[in-house]
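Retro notes, item 3 of 5
We never archived the inputs for the zinc ion complex last cycle. Fixing that now. Sequence and ligand:
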Amino acid sequence: MRCPFCAHDNSQVKDSRPSEDNTSIRRRRQCEGCGARFTTFERVQLREVVVVKSGERREPFERLKIEQSVALACRKRPVAQERLDQLVSGIQRQIETMGDAEVPSKVIGEMVMEGLRQLDSVAYIRFASVYRDFTEARDFEEFASSVQEMSAEEIQRRESARP
Ligand SMILES: [Zn+2]
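Structure as it came back at the time:
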């Protein structure tokens, strides 16, 4: 594993343990070049999936992007990290078992929305209010930049404006 600090090619595993929800292995590593410590995660990936974004752009599926969107939606909400991990793992499993080599980002956005709905109403509204405003030309990742500035008052306002 290449060191993220000095790009040295070798690192030693100092510690290895399963994550709380037991879906990944967390390894503490130390660079053999500069001695820096960093952490890597090992997860099951059933198959390679490509995400089709707006304008037919394609990119490899990345769990991290969903993790970031979900974490942002749940910012300062009383939702345990473990629940978020479970939600993201569930979505990842669904995507990988769908059997499609390509998945539209829209489909992933819907899965995130549905998962958040069951987890926390405020997080759901944050995500859904931004996501549903999107036109076809945009995709759910833009949610991240939009939601950051959304105040509690605005969430309230959007919620009460909903039919
Ligand atoms: Zn290094």
